[in-house]
Amino acid sequence: MALYALATLPLIRKVQQDGLTQAWFADDSNGGSTLSALFKWWRALRTEGPKYGYTVNPPKTWLLVKEHQLELARKMFDGSGIQLTTEGRPLLGAPLGDHHFQESFCATMLAKWSTEVKRLAQIATTQPHDAFAAFTHGLSSKWNYLARVHAGVEDHAKPLEEVIRRDLLPSLLGRSVNDSERELLGLPARLGGMGMFDPSLTSKAAFES
Predict the structure, then answer these.
(1) From residue 166, how far is each of 44, 57, 123, 182 by CA, in Å?
(2) Is the CB of residue 131 less than 8 Å from the CB of residue 120?
(3) Mapping DSSP to helix (H, G, I), strand (E, B) and coil, where does residue 158 land?
(4) How far apart are CA 44 and CA 16, in angstroms?
(5) DSSP state, residue 87
(6) Count of CB atoms within 10 A of residue 63's CB?
(7) Angle at 97 between CA 81 and CA 8, to 5 degrees
(8) Which of 19, 46, 89, 122 has the fewest CB atoms found within 10 Å of its own CB?
(9) % of the chain at pLDDT higher than 70
(10) How far apart are CA 171 and CA 127, in angstroms?
(11) In sequence order, which residues have a C-beta less than 8 Å from that of residue 152 and are 6 or more positions away?
């Protein structure tokens, strides 16, 4: 991955446009600027990219524009195969777009993860150690990441916390827990807890840090 990132630097510099901000993650390229600069950037990527072994994929490329610029964007990128939207799109796991899209994205993802926690609770009845490891080292990292890159996740995290407390913890421990015990289990292991943090309490601090 590191070598690939270094190999893309010549291309990134080659296609740079005035006033354009590029953000790359491996072969996932992103750019933000005016429509004219983005059009020049897109054209440069299509022309120069193959020289560096990089080929764009129009059907998987999205252009997020403001409502009043949508028609102009359609004319400029007509025939390019690029998808256009005025609402929003996920960018490296974070919602980018209007308020409604961001709220909908967060609610959808947290609902999905709540379902996954319920499935993990079923596994915990017979494989508690494996379920605990999957939660602390895997599943919880998903909403922790979202909380770090997007503000307001705590507003959607209470139903997820309810599933953790109502389903997962009893499956792991063999009984329900009271408020004091839930608070203790949410502490890191070095402080005597299990590192099973309450996402409705930790998300705000995760973003601010």
Answers:
(1) 54, 44, 15, 11
(2) yes
(3) helix
(4) 9
(5) S
(6) 22
(7) 55
(8) 19
(9) 100
(10) 10
(11) 102, 103, 106
- 43 token code pair: 């054209």
The confidence score (pLDDT) of residue 5 equals 81
User: How does the average pLDDT of the chain come out, rounded?
Assistant: 94
Among candidates 167, 149, 166, which has minimal Cα distance to 208?
149
- pLDDT tens for each residue of 28-38: 999 999 999 99
Strand partners, 16: none
Structure tokens at 86: 């005025």
**Per the structure block, which two tokens stand in for 110?**
């947290």
CA 61 from chain centre, in angstroms, equals 17
Residues in the chain: 209
Q: Which two tokens stand for residue 102?
A: 């961001």
Q: What is the pTM of this model?
A: 0.85
Of the candidates 138, 139, 156, 163, the residue with the CA atom closest to the CA atom of residue 203:
156
Q: Please, how many CA atoms are within 13 Å of residue 181, restricted to the half-sphere of its CB?
A: 9
140-149 helix and 199-208 helix, angle to the nearest 10 degrees: 40
Evaluate the CA torsion angle 162, 166, 167, 172 in order and state its sign.
Answer: positive
Q: Is 28 left (phi over 0), alpha (psi -120 to 50) or beta?
A: beta
189 to each of 66, 192, 204, how far by Cα in Å?
47, 5, 21
Chain centroid to Cα 33, Å, comes to: 22
Largest alpha-carbon pair distance within the chain? 63
Angle at 93 between CA 90 and CA 95, to 5 degrees: 40
